[in-house]
């Protein structure tokens, strides 16, 4: 199923729906298509408009095959993508609808996953306390289920929120704890671990300038960029290049910053 489904990347939304209706509505085909769409939407999250299209297709498929979990996963993916493009209120609506459906199906794991982007949207809309309360609820679920990689994902977003809220030392402590945890995980392959550590580097580097530590911020952004380049993560490499340009700009290296912005 993987090769035929790759066509969905080149098709528009309506064409994609037609393709699903023609090829993916029965039995194992629908199961494989649902799993593929969910994973691809997540993998393409940093190309958010592509991720958003895949999320809409997953919602369509779930609706057509009368599968509430597939439909809810599509809603979650849509909310994740909407956060990436800054539509926080719309994201929270989608994520809350997904969360309610997951709870109706007694699926607390996916409910907890729906909180990952929700907490970011809530914080960015100004309700940091609600974001952190929901983060702790989701973190408790993942801890109880024995899923340390998802605990780290929650902690990463908590650390980002701490950084935005001026709680810099708490953020840095979380980043160090996550980095150590990822190095001990056995359920993830080396590429996944490397990618996750690169994201920690990227986010930690955004906190350090507030403490005046530009040198370490440069080091982490460059290390993240190099790791992500090795992994073929072009969109994330672009983000790191922009962050490095931002560091130049903050220190008054305007020529260097402009060159980096131009090349990015």
Structure in words:
The protein is 80% helix and 0% strand. It has 264 residues and is mainly α. The chain has a domain at 1-129: Tetratricopeptide repeat domain (Serine Threonine Protein Phosphatase 5, Tetratricopeptide repeat). Helix 3 (27-43) packs antiparallel against helix 4.
Describe the biggest sheet?
none
CATH architecture of the domain at 1-129: Alpha Horseshoe
Between the first and last Cα atoms, what is the distance in angstroms? 35 Å
Helical/strand content category: mainly alpha
Q: Tell me, what's the shape? A: globular
Q: Helix fraction?
A: over 70%
CATH class descriptor of the domain at 1-129:
Mainly Alpha
Low-confidence stretches: none
User: How many extended strands?
Assistant: 0
Mean pLDDT: 94
- The helix count comes to 14
CATH topology of the domain at 1-129: Serine Threonine Protein Phosphatase 5, Tetratricopeptide repeat
So, the CATH homologous superfamily of the domain at 1-129? Answer: Tetratricopeptide repeat domain
* Helix and strand run: HHHHHHHHHHHHHH
From the alpha-carbon coordinates, what is the Rg to the nearest angstrom? Answer: 19 Å
Share of residues in strands: under 5%
Task: Itemize the secondary structure elements and their pairings.
Elements: H1 2-5, H2 13-23, H3 27-43, H4 48-64, H5 68-84, H6 88-104, H7 108-124, H8 128-144, H9 148-164, H10 168-182, H11 190-207, H12 214-230, H13 234-250, H14 254-263
């Amino acid at each position: 199923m993987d090769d035929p489904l790759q066509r969905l990347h080149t098709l528009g939304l309506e064409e994609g729906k037609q393709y699903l209706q023609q090829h993916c509505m029965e039995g194992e085909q629908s199961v494989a298509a649902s799993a593929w769409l969910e994973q691809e939407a997540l993998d393409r999250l940093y190309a958010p408009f592509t991720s958003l299209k895949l999320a809409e297709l997953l919602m369509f498929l779930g609706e057509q095959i009368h599968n509430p979990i597939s439909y809810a996963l599509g809603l979650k993916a849509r909310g994740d993508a909407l956060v990436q493009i800054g539509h926080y209120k719309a994201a929270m609506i989608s994520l809350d609808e997904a969360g309610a459906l997951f709870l109706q199906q007694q699926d607390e794991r996916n409910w907890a996953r729906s909180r990952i982007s929700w907490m970011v949207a809530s914080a960015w809309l100004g309700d940091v306390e609600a974001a952190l309360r929901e983060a702790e609820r989701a973190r408790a679920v993942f801890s109880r289920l024995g899923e340390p990689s998802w605990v780290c994902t929650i902690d990463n977003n908590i650390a980002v929120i701490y950084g935005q809220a001026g709680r810099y030392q708490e953020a840095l402590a979380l980043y160090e704890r996550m980095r150590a945890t990822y190095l001990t995980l056995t359920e993830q392959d080396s590429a996944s671990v490397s990618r996750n550590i690169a994201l920690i580097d990227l986010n930690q580097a955004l906190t350090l300038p507030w403490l005046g530590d530009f040198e370490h911020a440069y080091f982490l952004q460059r290390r993240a960029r190099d790791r992500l380049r090795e992994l073929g993560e072009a969109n994330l490499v672009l983000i790191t290049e922009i962050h490095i340009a931002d560091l130049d700009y903050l220190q008054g290296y305007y020529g260097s910053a402009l060159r980096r912005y131009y090349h990015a």
